[in-house]
Amino acid sequence: MKFKSLRFKQRGAVGVLLLNRPAKRNALSDAMVAELDVFFNALPAGVKAVVMHGAGEHFCAGLDLAELSDRSAAQGVAHSRGWHRTFERIQFGDVPVVAVLHGAVVGGGLELASTAHIRVAESNAFYALPEGQRGIFVGGGASVRVPRLIGAARMADMMFTGRVYSAEEGQATGISTYLVPAGKGLAKGVELAGRIAGNAPATNFALMHALPRIAELGQDAGLLMESLVAGIAQSEPEAKRRMKDFLDKRAAKVKKHG
Ligand code: 1HE
């Protein structure tokens, strides 16, 4: 696949997608969002998990402010809805995504990061929503996805006051679930994606598509939905094979790793 603002490499079942506009701190231009849309709508054959990371010193500086021209209200709504479509496609797409975060993860960069299923942060990552200071509002899904990670109160604080969270604070508040030294994020992301790619497809599907919906339901409907998904997953031949492997002592035991 040939892109201008993205670069793609395949490592077995793991696809590694690089945001590749380092001179502009990987700011999300319309063209770059369009390329993300194309990529996540037609993943290369054999890719079962994607790692997304940024070229240069930062993951992503958010919306390309040079393109925020004289839009009317209606054009602004349409632009935001365009981001929503692409970002929904990442979150509810075909394969799990691991985002590797370093440097600035700000504005639309944090919105993009929050579409991923797992976030690995390097110790130099920092998070902000400068929309508050730029006189605008988030438009790429942050008001839906970020509160589900860190709570609406913390997100409001970030926007009201321009507060910047460090990598450690991001880890403590739930933006990331892995924190690694600077320069070690990609290796960790690829390792995790490789493990995810080896899961039964029904398990990954349930985690991507059922779990976030179940988590939004009331208890009655949630428990019923869980039972339906559990029943379907366990009836898959792949599940039966994996359980037999364990009982026949061919499968790995549960043990702690990184
Ligand atoms: C940009 C952008 C950008 C950098 N749009 N061009 N996002 C922001 O408000 C964040 C704005 N950016 C920054 O605060 C800083 O650039 C960083 C902390 C990310 C990086 O700092 P640094 O010192 O490494 O880089 P720099 O010198 O500030 O920027 C290098 C170049 O990238 C420079 O261009 P140049 O032509 O002068 O070399 C910058 O202008 C350019 N650049 N960030 C355009 N964001 C759907 S709603 C989402 C709404 C939002 O995301 S709003 C938040 C936007």
In total, the number of domains comes to 2
Q: What's the story with the biggest beta sheet? A: 6 strands, mixed
- Overall pLDDT metric: 96
Q: Which percent range fits the helix content? A: 40-55%
Strand order of the largest sheet: 1-2-3-4-6-9
Q: Any ligands, ions or cofactors bound here, and which?
A: 3-methylmercaptopropionate-CoA (MMPA-CoA)
CATH class of the largest domain: Alpha Beta
Beta-strand percentage range:
15-25%
Annotation field: number of helices: 11
Topology:
Elements (H helix, E strand, L loop, with lengths): L5 E6 L2 E6 L10 H12 L7 E6 L18 H19 L5 E5 L2 E3 L1 H6 L4 E5 L3 E3 L2 H4 L7 H9 L1 H10 L3 E2 H7 L4 E3 L4 H13 L3 H14 L4 H17 L1 H11 L11
Parallel strand pairs: 2-3, 3-4, 4-6, 5-7, 6-9
Antiparallel strand pairs: 1-2, 7-8
The chain binds 3-methylmercaptopropionate-CoA (MMPA-CoA) (1HE).
Description:
The structure is a single chain. The protein folds into two domains: 6-197, 2-enoyl-CoA Hydratase, Chain A, domain 1 (Alpha-Beta Complex); 201-247, Lyase 2-enoyl-coa Hydratase, Chain  A, domain 2. A six-stranded mixed sheet has the order 1-2-3-4-6-9, sandwiched between helices. A three-stranded mixed sheet has the order 5-7-8. By secondary structure, it is α/β, with parallel strands linked by helices. Strand 3 (49-54), helix 2 and strand 4 form a beta-alpha-beta unit. It has eleven helices and nine strands. The mean pLDDT is 96. The chain is globular and about 65 Å long. Helix 1 packs parallel to helix 2 (73-91) and helix 5 packs across helix 6 (152-161). The site of 3-methylmercaptopropionate-CoA (MMPA-CoA) (1HE) has 23 residues, from helix 2, strand 5 and helix 4.
